[in-house]
Amino acid sequence: MKPIPLRWLIVTPFVILALISGITMYLVSTVTISNIASSVGIQYIKEVEGRIYDRVKGFMAPLSDIVEINLNAFSNRPELVDNLVPLADRFYEQATPYNQMTFISMATVDGRYLASAQDPIKRGQHNIAANFINKPLTMEGYNYDPKHFIGPKIVDDGSFSYDPRTRPFYQDAIKANTVAWSNIHPYYGYPTLGVGLSAPIYNQKGELLGVTATSIALLELDKYLKSLELVNGAYLFLTEENGSLIASSEQSELFKTVDGVTSRVNLNNHSNSVFQLASHTLTAGSYKINVEGQEYLYYVRPITLEYDKKWLIGILIPSAYHKALLAGYTQSTVMITLVLFICIGLIGSLIAWYIGSPIQALNQAANAKDIKIIQRLPHPLSQIREINSLSQGLSSMADNLFDIMQDLEKKVAERTSVLQGEKDHLLEDALTDELTKLYNRRGFNQVFKQALKYAQQNHQQITFVLCDIDHFKRINDKFGHTVGDLALISVAMNLKSHARLTSDIVARYGGEEFTLVFINTDLPQVLDRLNDIREELKKNPVAKDQHVTMSFGVVHAEDALSISARELIEQADKKLYQAKNSGRDKIII
Questions:
Q1: Together in a domain, 238 and 151
Q2: Domain carrying residue 560
Q3: Where are the beta strands (DSSP E) in 93-221?
């Protein structure tokens, strides 16, 4: 059978698939259906958003209205501030029509405070709060009396020190020098948020008289959002511009208290991932967002309150809602798409089998890390000309590579043997003193580090000895450097003969200095060996009847873990210096 060119095998079926796709797209207009569905969703969102907008505006309106009324009244009639008691009647009447009103108050520059107050949760009963009735700056609660304005003290309410001039509502108004909003905050001891509006009051001379304020509980807004009947999977929220939640359709907290510290819940740290993603876009407009595979139509609208306060309404509905409304229009599209997918699947499977099988065999052989498997590939491997040619070329290359690798392995083995010998020789030269054949400074540092680590791990004794040939310069000056070298060699042999080859260390530390390290050896034994070294130096001349003496600095540690290498060397050096300066030919411990 004549081999088939690979390009024809690939091009022909995909031309057919492209033709099927073109006809399908011509028959249905997916984009048009999607646009219609989005319009339906936006229309639903705007209807819900309009209801929320009107509710929030109406809910918040009394706050600014009452502040403006009181601001004008007190500014034009400053004598009202002289006696706050009659204001209880005024504030009570202002608060009574509004179920959400928690405080309407007046605070004077001398610290007096009076307010109509209502429990933010158990609403329906407005009382009077004042801090000047029985004791200055002491807050107490009173029943409202239509005749005397301030009635009997409420027994259940405790008294506490209260200076309104230190409170945020007072300070914010003074700082702004105009009507100012307070930060939204949780009411102390109550599971609800509140917000206030305050204004400074000045007389005609511009003198500060005090601050009037109103405060409102936002619980009703949260309940309202939760009460709205929404499509399944929809979400509503009301936030400040920074994303801090004011109300939402979710049954979740709006603030948290951890270790006595209360913090607001923000969209970006909300437990709901939909709210978290919505926090990334808080600009007015409509958007599409995707949360864990679920698409939402997202709409944001600002609510502008009095005195430059702006809140945001956010509405998210799942795209499935409005797309389901047009399911009838998409049924034919689904069927045609299904047929298209079946065609693509069948053709793709056929191509994958026809092309993939021989290519898979080539891939397995190439990745087997064994040239012999490539050499055993069948010929021909496939009826596709290019694949068959590739198989033959790979087999030929494998044969050549097999021969090259055998020759290369032989050369590598030979070269490795030579390099290993050179490496061992160079390593020995690098670590050994050429004259004395002891460890040089570099070699000593290497073996000493290992020996100290071993002794520390096993809590063994260690003795570090730093020694020096006395008056070595005289030998060089008198007999020459050749004799000096013989002296160094003789001393090195003497030191080495008194050390254990398997555990002790002997090294030329530099010049005429040597070092010895004894592991797991008692100090008396070490001193015996050092004295033996001294005796041998006295008995045997190092060269030309020339005897030498040595000075020793010794540091001993019962447990090597208690001392470092640096401390051993520094202490031994000091003791050697002491031996040299106290007459030489001594052992200093």
A1: no
A2: 441-588
A3: 101-108, 113-118, 126-130, 138-145, 149-153, 160-161, 180-181, 185-186, 193-202, 208-217
Q: How far apart are CA 39 and CA 172, in angstroms?
A: 45
Q: Is 6 helix (H, G, I), strand (E, B) or coil?
A: helix
Residues 6+ apart with CB under 8 A from 249: 225, 226, 228, 230, 234, 235, 236, 237
- 217 exposure class (CB count in 10 Å sphere: 0-12, 13-18, 19+): buried
Contact in structure between 97 and 118 (CB atoms under 8 Å): no
Residues 435, 375: Cα–Cα separation, whole Å: 60
Q: Tokens 């081999």, residue?
A: 3
Q: What is the C-alpha to C-alpha distance for residues 24 and 461, in angstroms, rounded to an integer?
A: 89
| pTM metric for this prediction | 0.51
- Looking at the fold, whether 258 and 173 belong to one and the same domain comes out as no
Mean pLDDT for back-to-back runs of 10 residues, the chain (589 residues): 60 68 60 61 85 94 94 94 94 92 96 94 88 95 93 89 95 94 87 94 93 94 91 92 94 86 91 92 92 91 93 91 61 64 66 68 68 72 71 69 71 65 65 93 94 95 96 90 91 94 91 95 96 93 84 96 94 96 94
CATH at residue 261: 3.30.450.20
Asked, for residue 143, whether it belongs to a domain, the answer is yes
168 shares its domain with 244: no
The CATH number of the domain holding residue 577 is 3.30.70.270
Q: 47 in a domain, yes or no?
A: no
Q: What are phi and psi of 302, to 5 degrees?
A: -80, 150
φ, ψ for residue 499 (rounded to 5)?
Answer: -120, 150
Same domain, 191 and 253: no
Phi (first) and psi of residue 241, to 5 degrees: -65, -25
CB contact set of 252 (below 8 Å; sequence gap of 6+):
265, 270, 271, 272
Residue 331: left (phi > 0), alpha (psi -120 to 50), or beta? alpha
Count of C-beta atoms within a 10 Å radius of residue 136: 12
Tokens 């944001």 label which residue?
300
Q: Is residue 79 part of a domain?
A: yes
**Residue 28 exposed, middle or buried by CB count within 10 Å (0-12, 13-18, 19+):** middle
Burial 108-127 (b: 16+ CB within 10 A, else e): bbebbbbbbbbebeebeebb
Q: Please indicate, yes or no, whether residues 200 and 79 belong to a single structural domain of this protein.
A: yes
Helix, strand, coil percent values for the chain (each to nearest 5) = 50, 25, 25
